[in-house]
Specification:
- The complex is a heterodimer of chains A (700) and B (152).
- With 700 residues, chain A is an alpha+beta fold.
- In chain A, 30% of the residues lie in helices and 24% in strands.
- Chain A has three domains: 200 residues, 2-Layer Sandwich (Aldehyde Oxidoreductase, domain 4), CATH 3.30.365; 143 residues, Aldehyde oxidase/xanthine dehydrogenase, molybdopterin binding domain (Aldehyde Oxidoreductase, domain 4, 2-Layer Sandwich); 293 residues, Aldehyde oxidase/xanthine dehydrogenase, molybdopterin binding domain (Aldehyde Oxidoreductase, domain 4), CATH 3.30.365.
- Chain A has a seven-stranded mixed β-sheet, sandwiched between helices. Chain A has a five-stranded mixed β-sheet with strand order 13-21-20-19-14, with helices on both faces.
- In chain A, α3 packs parallel to α4 and α14 packs parallel to α18.
- The two termini of chain A are 53 Å apart.
- Chain B has two domains: 75 residues, Ubiquitin-like (UB roll) (Roll); 68 residues, [2Fe-2S]-binding domain (DNA polymerase, domain 1, Orthogonal Bundle), CATH 1.10.150.120.
- Helices cover 36% and strands 15% of the residues of chain B.
- In chain B, β1 and β2 form a beta hairpin.
- Classes of the chains: A alpha+beta (700), B alpha+beta (152).
- At the A-B interface, α6, α8 and α17 of A face α1, α2, α3, α4 and α5 of B.
Chain lengths: 700, 152
C-alpha cells in the first residue's frame, strides 16, 4: 500500500477527462450514511491515508471497498472490517467503490473468496491508520504511543485526556504508513458480527443510478450486437432495414458479429432486430440429446481420467454384499443475472476507459489492452454495482465487444444486451452427469466410486474430487470424462459443487435408506472415520455444523405430516447443513421450511450473511426444480423468461439460518449455501412421496 | 414525435418514435433510471411502475398510450425515500444485488393501495410476477407484511 494514491485527485481528474459525466457521477458512492451527515460528501475535503481510508476534518471517514459487488454483500462487509480495526463508529463511514488499482490485491468477485482472502489485508489497512492517529496524538501530548488507547474515533490517555481522530488528521497523514500495526483481539470486535444494512440500501430503494445499465455520459452512443449461435459463423447480413430505423447511426461488422450503434437503447435494439442475418456453419451435433448420448456412453466406460484414487475399488466391489449405483443428470444453465450484460467503453488514441459490471476488472483491462494492441497502463476500469453476477461476469466477452465497438465506431458507447442476447448466447453452467457406485459389506460402506461426464473439461479438480466422502471410505476413486462442445461454458454459482453436492448428498440419502440408518447418523459416522485423514474439509467442523441443524430443525421429532430431508456440504471453505421440511398440500409436496446451519468462521455482517444463505437455498432449489436450457443445432431453445422458469415467491419455503459460533478466520458465503439445497429438497421429496429425484430440473 | 407525459406529478415533453416503450423513455430520455430493464417482455417485473395507481410493466406500455395518465416511478414513490414500503425494505435490509427491488417495491406499494391489509397468501400472489434472481423472497415477503402493519 502507498499513500501516494490520492483518490480525491483521481476523481477530479477522471471527471474532467470524462468531459462531464452526467448521471455517472456518484454511481458508486453509497448515500446511506451521507444522508445522515449535515454536509454533502462532495463538499468535504478528504485527506488520504492509504488506498482504503480517507478522513474529512469533520470526522467523516470514506472507506473504499476494493472488490466488485454483485449482490454478495462485500461492499458492506469489506469496509466493516477496515472500520473495525480503524475503530470508528460505523455511522461516520461513507463507503465508495474503489476502481481497479494496483493498490489492491485480488479485485475479483469469485469463488466466495473476497472476505477469506482479503480479511488480513483489510484489518491491516484499518489498524495501520489507527496507529497513525495514535502516534500523532502521542507526539502532540509528548507521551509514548503505547500509553494511549483508541476507541470509536477517540484517543484517550492514561491521565484522562481525550482527542478525536479528526483533530490530528494533518499530523497523522504525514506519518509513514506503519507495517505490522497491532490488531484487535477477536473478542474485542464491536462492529464485526453485527447486522449492518447494505451500504447501498438508500440508493436502491429510491432508484438512484448505481448499476452499469444506469451509467451514462454526454455524447455516449448505444450499441446492440448480434452474435452467432454456438459454433456458427456469419454468412451474410443485409442491414438496409436496420439502417432505416430512426436513431440508428452505424452498422458495423466485426469477427462474426454485427453491431448496431444508435442514439438510444431502444433504437439499437430495434435496429438489431431488423438486421437480416444468415448464420452459416450451424452445428448439428450441438444438441442436448447428442450430449446426453455421449455422456451416457462415457459413463459406461471403465477408464476415465483419474482425479483421485485411494485403496482398491475393484477389489471392494468384488467382495461386496451389495452394490448401489445411481446416475444424476443436470442440464446447461444460463446465469440469468437480472441486469443483462452491458458495458461502457471509450476507446481513444490516448486511453481506454471502461465502466461497468465486471467480476474481473483486472482481466478486463488486460484482455482489452491485448485485443486493441494497447498498453494496459492506458486502460482504466471502474466498477459499478452489479445486478447479479453468479459467475457470468467472470467472462470478459461483453467487455471486449464494448471496447471493440467503441474502437470501430470511434465513439464512447454502451453495449447493451437484450434478455435474449443474454440468455441465448451465454456462458452456461456446463451440462454434467455423475454416476456414483458404492459397495456395501457387513452393513458398512466399503467403496465409493464417482464418475463425471462434463462439457468442456469444466469438471472437478483434484481438490473437489477429495470432498466428502473421500477420507471416510477406504476404497475411493473419482474420475472424469470430457465432452467437447462449441457451447461457451463457464463458472456458474458454486461451480461443479452446485450439482456434485446434489449428487453426493442424494446418494448419501439413498445409502442411509439401504443401510437402514438415520441419514444424519450415517453422515456423522462417516465423518468420524474421516477424522485425522488428509481431506480438504475438517470432519469435526462438519459434524458440529450438522449437530446444530439437527437441534434447530427438531430432526426426527417433526410433527406428523412433515417430511424432513437432510443434506450437508463443504464447499468454498465453508460448511453448510440443511434440513428441508416438506408437507403434502392439496396432494402436492410443498417445501415449507428450510433450516440451515453454517460454519463460515467469524461472521462479518450477520444481516448480509443470512441474506446470502436465504438466497442461495432458494436459488438452489429453484434451479433444481425448473432450470433447463436445451440446445438444437447450437441454438438456445429458451431465450427469455416466457420459456425459462426461475423460482418465484409462491414456491419459496421460509429459511431459518444459524451460524456456528466460531473464532476461525472468516470464509465466504456467496456460494456455500447452494450445493446442499437441491438434495435437502430431493431427500424430503423422497420421504414425502417415495419418489427419488435423479435428474434436474425436477419439474417441467 | 412529441408526447406529453405526467410522471411523478411533473409534466414532461419527450420527442421519441411512437411505439417506444415507456421504460426506455424513462431511462434514456428522462434519466429516471430507477425503473430497470430485465426481460423486455413483461415477464420479470423489474420495470414495474404505477399507471393511474395500478402496477404495470413499463416495457409493455407504448409511449403514445400513456399520454395523459398519472405515471409514478420509484423516484416518485415518496419525496424522501420514506414511503412505508421503502422504510420496510430498509428495516428488513431486503436487497442482495438490489436490481429488481424497485420493481418489487412498485408492485408491493400498488398492492397496499388496493388492499391495505393483505394476507400472507395475498402478498405471495401479488408478488409472484416479480422475479428476484438473488431470491431475496423471504425478506420481500416480510417487508411487505411490515409495511402493511405500519400503514394500519
Amino acid at each position: 500500500m502507498s499513500n501516494t494514491f490520492n483518490r480525491r485527485n483521481f476523481l477530479k481528474l477522471s471527471l474532467l477527462a470524462g468531459g462531464g459525466m452526467l448521471i455517472g457521477i456518484g454511481c458508486n458512492e453509497s448515500n446511506e450514511q451521507a444522508a445522515k451527515m449535515p454536509v454533502s460528501i462532495e463538499d468535504l475535503d478528504f485527506t488520504s491515508f492509504n488506498a482504503y481510508i480517507e478522513m474529512a476534518t469533520n470526522g467523516m471517514v470514506k472507506i473504499y471497498s476494493p472488490n466488485p459487488e454483485i449482490g454478495q454483500g462485500v461492499k458492506t462487509a469489506m469496509p466493516m472490517i477496515v472500520a473495525e480495526e480503524l475503530d470508528i463508529p460505523w455511522e461516520k463511514v461513507h463507503v465508495a467503490q474503489a476502481p481497479l488499482s494496483n493498490d489492491f490485491n485480488r479485485q475479483v468477485a469469485g469463488g466466495s473468496q473476497s472476505i477469506r482472502q482479503s480479511f488480513p489485508g483489510l484489518r491491516n489497512a484499518g489498524a495501520a491508520v489507527k496507529l497513525m492517529f495514535l502516534t500523532a496524538a502521542a507526539k502532540k501530548w509528548g507521551v509514548e504511543v503505547e500509553s494511549l488507547k483508541a476507541s470509536q474515533g477517540v484517543i484517550s490517555s492514561n491521565d484522562g485526556k481525550k482527542i478525536n481522530y479528526e483533530e490530528v488528521i494533518t499530523e497523522a497523514a504525514k506519518l509513514p504508513i506503519p507495517e505490522n500495526a497491532p490488531l484487535k483481539k477477536v473478542e474485542d470486535f464491536t462492529l464485526i458480527g453485527k447486522a449492518i444494512n447494505n451500504v447501498d440500501i438508500k440508493p436502491i430503494i429510491t432508484g438512484k443510478p448505481l448499476y452499469g445499465v444506469d451509467y451514462k455520459e454526454k455524447g455516449m452512443k448505444y450499441a446492440a450486437v448480434a452474435r452467432p449461435p454456438f459454433g456458427a459463423s456469419l454468412k451474410s447480413v443485409d442491414d438496409t432495414e436496420a439502417k432505416a430505423v430512426k436513431g440508428v447511426e452505424q452498422v458495423i461488422q466485426f469477427k462474426n458479429k454485427v453491431a448496431v450503434i444508435a442514439n438510444s437503447t431502444w433504437a439499437a435494439f430495434k435496429g438489431k432486430s431488423k438486421l437480416n442475418i444468415e448464420w452459416g456453419n450451424l452445428q448439428d451435433d450441438e444438441n442436448t440429446d447428442v450430449f446426453d448420448q455421449q455422456m451416457n456412453q462415457l459413463l459406461r466406460k471403465n477408464k476415465l481420467e483419474e482425479k483421485v484414487k485411494s485403496g482398491d475399488v475393484a477389489k471392494a466391489r468384488n467382495e461386496a454384499d451389495q452394490i448401489i449405483e445411481k446416475t444424476y443428470e443436470a442440464p446447461f444453465l444460463p446465469h440469468s443475472t437480472m441486469e443483462p450484460m452491458n458495458f461502457f467503453a471509450d476507446v481513444t488514441d490516448q486511453k481506454i476507459r471502461l465502466v461497468g459490471p465486471t467480476q474481473v476488472p483486472r482481466s478486463s483491462a488486460n484482455v482489452v489492452a491485448k485485443l486493441l494492441d494497447r498498453n494496459v497502463e492506458d486502460v482504466t476500469v471502474e466498477m459499478t454495482r452489479m445486478g447479479g453476477g453468479f459467475g457470468r461476469r467472470l467472462s470478459t466477452d461483453f467487455v471486449e465487444d464494448a471496447a471493440m465497438v467503441s474502437h470501430l465506431a470511434k465513439a464512447p458507447i454502451k453495449l447493451m444486451y437484450t434478455r435474449e442476447d443474454d440468455m441465448a448466447i451465454g456462458q452456461y453452467r456446463p451440462k454434467v452427469k455423475y454416476k456414483i457406485t458404492a459397495s456395501i459389506k457387513n452393513g458398512q460402506l466399503t467403496s465409493y466410486e464417482l464418475k463425471e461426464a462434463i462439457v468442456n473439461n469444466r469438471g472437478m479438480n483434484k481438490g473437489i474430487a477429495r470432498f466428502f466422502p473421500f477420507g471416510a471410505v477406504d476404497h475411493y476413486s473419482a474420475t472424469s470424462a470430457n465432452v467437447p462442445s462449441d457451447v461457451t461454458t463457464l463458472w456458474w454459482r458454486a461451480p461443479i459443487t452446485n450439482f456434485l453436492g446434489f449428487a453426493t448428498e442424494s446418494f448419501m440419502d439413498e445409502l442411509a435408506i439401504t443401510l437402514q440408518k438415520d441419514p444424519i447418523d450415517l453422515r456423522l459416522e462417516l465423518l468420524e472415520k474421516a477424522k485425522g485423514k488428509k481431506t480438504p474439509y475438517n470432519a469435526e467442523r462438519m459434524q458440529k455444523t450438522i449437530q446444530l441443524v439437527k437441534e434447530k430443525s427438531n430432526w426426527g421429532k417433526a410433527e406428523k405430516g412433515i417430511y424432513q430431508g437432510f443434506s450437508c456440504y463443504y464447499s468454498h471453505n465453508s460448511y453448510v447443513a440443511e434440513v428441508c421440511d416438506m408437507e403434502i398440500i392439496d396432494g402436492k409436496p410443498v417445501a415449507k421450511r428450510f433450516y440451515a446451519s453454517v460454519d463460515c468462521g467469524i461472521v462479518i455482517n450477520t444481516s448480509g450473511a443470512k441474506n446470502q444463505i436465504e438466497g442461495a437455498i432458494l436459488d438452489g432449489i429453484g434451479h433444481a426444480m425448473y432450470g433447463n436450457m436445451e440446445l438444437k443445432d447450437g441454438i438456445a431453445q429458451s431465450q427469455n423468461y416466457d420459456k425459462y422458469k426461475l423460482i418465484r415467491m409462491m414456491d419459496t419455503p421460509v429459511i431459518e439460518t444459524y451460524f456456528v459460533d466460531s473464532n476461525e478466520a472468516p470464509t465466504g458465503l456467496g456460494e456455500p449455501g447452494m450445493p446442499p439445497s437441491g438434495a435437502a429438497y430431493a431427500n424430503a421429496y423422497m420421504k414425502a412421496t417415495g419418489k427419488r429425484m435423479l435428474k434436474q430440473p425436477f419439474f417441467g | 414525435m412529441k408526447f406529453d407525459l405526467k410522471i411523478n406529478k411533473k409534466n414532461y415533453s419527450v420527442d421519441v418514435e411512437d411505439g417506444t416503450p415507456l421504460l426506455w423513455v424513462l431511462r434514456d430520455e428522462l434519466e429516471l433510471v430507477g425503473t430497470k430493464f430485465g426481460c423486455g417482455i413483461g415477464e420479470c417485473g423489474a420495470c414495474t411502475v404505477h399507471i393511474d395507481g395500478k402496477a404495470e410493466r413499463s416495457c409493455q406500455q407504448m409511449v403514445e398510450l400513456v399520454e395523459g395518465k398519472e405515471i409514478t416511478t420509484i423516484e416518485g414513490l415518496s419525496e424522501n425515500g420514506d414511503h412505508p414500503i421503502q422504510e420496510a425494505w430498509e428495516t428488513i435490509d431486503v436487497p442482495q444485488c438490489g436490481y429488481c427491488q424497485s420493481g418489487q417495491m412498485m408492485t408491493a406499494s400498488a398492492l397496499l393501495m388496493k388492499n391495505p391489509s393483505p394476507s400472507n397468501q395475498e402478498i405471495r400472489m401479488a408478488m409472484n410476477g416479480n422475479i428476484c434472481r438473488c431470491a431475496s423472497y423471504n425478506r420481500i415477503e416480510k417487508a411487505v407484511a411490515l409495511a402493511a402493519e405500519k400503514i394500519k
